[in-house]
């Protein structure tokens, strides 16, 4: 353990104990209603990819109808959420009409089936995190200094989704350079959580989380180097999957890195309200060869999966961390109990040694020398001093950079406040943990574990959650697949859930357990009740 880092954690924990009750009682008194997102009125917005694809194939639905439904929903909620950076609605409608023409041109049901085998997402709308590159669209990634930058080509994962027939509607908001768990920039302003307008949707896939949580996206593509898919998924009550390291190409992503091992840490993955859609989306994003490696087409026998669960870090490490919220602990226990009733072997497990989880997690970020910095320049000497000066300027509103991004910059410039030798030592320790987790989970085991310790924090107070980011970041360092599973809304109306983690390249196990938990506990809950009489007639397929 590193004393300085742990003292920071203790200071944040003490401040949280002092400040949180004051915020609750005096600064943010409870209100009877915290969201103004309009209720969903179109039943198409409540259907999964599987259901919509079936209707498109049978010509009961047109892509134009579906795309228009999502455009209408986006336009009705974005004035509240500020999650959209740039839209392409007219182009999307033209692409939807082209998809309808392709389907109409099929002379037989067999021809339609073949068309959808070749293009499994044909006619289905999607949203794209700005950092993942959508050709011709803004590629500023929240930076004032990149405000005129456009993507000159689709990112590799985006290209695969479009080749499969998906229709991009927009690019969604990110923090500056994706360097924050709160989506709030000088260029684009603050994105809002659809469940509580006083709270953040998270980051760095905050725009995706917000739109998906509000029912304004069928599915989105996010990226994750330290929790950037899973944190917004928790805060906004949706499913998000961080794939195993290296199985989904991040070519075209910004920020990028010259480090050939970056795809072990940085991944792109799907975000959606429907767990049943995750496997199909991952198969497309991973590509044929990697899908075979992940065995995504093989059926998974649920009762053969061994389930381990833990309610947080243990020992001294657990005491130093802020406690995990009771709703999250209870959700893990409820899920474990449910899976046990289905005949699965369920064990509250002693995890491989994670006493240095903070150090190992931050070393993974500190070791990314090849990744772009905010404050670039020919002279590397004095960059720590320059970063500190910019942080001070940002605190008094005089910097062109956001404070959170600068704090991330400082963390990298200082080797996470460790010596380079210590960083290498903890990176080596993390490599040992990969083997230990692989042995624990094998090819038929999953771990239920908190995604983060708390539901969505209030704007500007994400620092209390930031210092628990090793809950997510450690699994980037280990390269393990993780699916965030929403489990309901707490007494404040905030989403909560937890992570399902598997061994390397065992993504299918996470996805199978997520589908079962969605079936049993309902998955995504809308921010406000539906006003759709036909809802009772919709059958959710499993």
UniProtKB/TrEMBL annotation:
Protein name as annotated: Amidase domain-containing protein
Keyword Ligase recorded: yes
Active site: 129, 204, 228
Boundaries of every Amidase domain copy: 65-511
Organism: Drosophila ananassae
Listed Pfam families: Amidase (PF01425)
GO function term, MF aspect, one: ligase activity
Gene Ontology CC annotations of this record: endomembrane system
Alphabetized UniProt keyword annotations: Ligase
Keyword Oxidoreductase carried by entry: no
SUPFAM superfamilies, alphabetized: Amidase signature (AS) enzymes (SSF75304)
């Amino acid at each position: 353990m590193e004393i300085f880092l742990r003292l920071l954690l203790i200071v944040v924990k003490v401040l949280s104990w002092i400040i949180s009750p004051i915020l609750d009682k005096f600064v943010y008194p409870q209100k009877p209603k915290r969201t103004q997102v309009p209720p969903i009125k179109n039943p198409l917005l409540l259907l999964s990819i599987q259901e919509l694809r079936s209707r498109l194939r049978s010509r009961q639905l047109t892509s134009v109808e579906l795309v228009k439904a999502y455009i209408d929903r986006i336009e009705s909620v974005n004035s509240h959420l500020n999650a959209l950076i740039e839209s392409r609605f007219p182009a999307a409608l033209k692409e939807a009409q082209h998809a309808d023409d392709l389907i109409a041109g099929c002379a037989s049901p067999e021809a339609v089936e073949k068309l959808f085998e070749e293009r499994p997402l044909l006619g289905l709308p999607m949203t794209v995190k700005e950092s993942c590159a959508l050709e011709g669209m803004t590629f500023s990634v929240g930076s004032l200094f990149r405000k005129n930058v456009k993507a000159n080509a689709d990112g590799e994962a985006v290209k695969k989704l479009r080749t499969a027939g998906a229709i991009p509607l927009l690019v969604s908001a990110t923090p500056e350079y994706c360097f924050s768990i709160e989506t709030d920039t000088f260029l684009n302003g603050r994105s809002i959580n659809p469940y509580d307008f006083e709270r953040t949707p998270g980051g760095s896939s905050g725009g995706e989380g917000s739109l998906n949580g509000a029912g304004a996206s069928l599915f989105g593509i996010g990226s994750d180097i330290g929790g950037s898919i899973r944190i917004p998924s928790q805060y906004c009550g949706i499913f998000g999957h961080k794939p195993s390291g290296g199985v989904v190409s991040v070519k075209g992503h910004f920020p990028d890195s010259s480090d050939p091992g970056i795809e072990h840490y940085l991944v792109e993955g799907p975000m959606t309200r429907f767990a049943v859609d995750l496997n199909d989306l991952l198969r497309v994003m991973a590509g044929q060869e990697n899908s075979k490696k992940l065995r995504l087409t093989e059926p998974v026998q649920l009762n053969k999966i061994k389930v381990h669960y833990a309610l947080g870090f243990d020992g001294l490490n657990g005491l130093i961390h802020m406690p995990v919220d009771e709703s999250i602990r209870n959700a893990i226990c409820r899920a474990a109990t449910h899976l046990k009733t289905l005949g699965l072997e369920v064990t509250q497990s002693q995890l491989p040694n994670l006493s240095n989880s903070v150090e190992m997690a931050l070393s993974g970020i500190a070791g990314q020398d090849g990744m772009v910095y905010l404050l670039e320049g020919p002279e590397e000497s004095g960059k720590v001093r320059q970063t500190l000066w910019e942080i001070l300027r940002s605190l008094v509103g005089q910097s062109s950079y956001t404070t959170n991004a600068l704090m991330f910059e400082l963390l990298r410039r200082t080797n996470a406040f460790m010596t380079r030798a210590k960083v290498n030592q903890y990176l080596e320790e993390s490599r040992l943990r990969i083997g230990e987790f692989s042995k624990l989970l094998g090819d038929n085991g999953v771990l239920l574990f908190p995604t983060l310790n708390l539901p969505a924090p209030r704007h500007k107070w994400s620092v209390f959650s930031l210092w628990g980011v090793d809950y997510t970041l450690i699994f980037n360092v280990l390269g393990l697949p993780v699916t965030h599973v929403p489990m309901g809304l707490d007494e404040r109306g905030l989403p909560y859930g937890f992570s399902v983690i598997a061994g390397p390249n065992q993504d299918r196990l996470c996805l199978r357990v997520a589908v079962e938990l969605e079936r049993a506990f309902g998955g995504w809950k809308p921010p406000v009740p539906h006003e759709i009489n036909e809802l009772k007639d919709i059958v959710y397929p499993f």
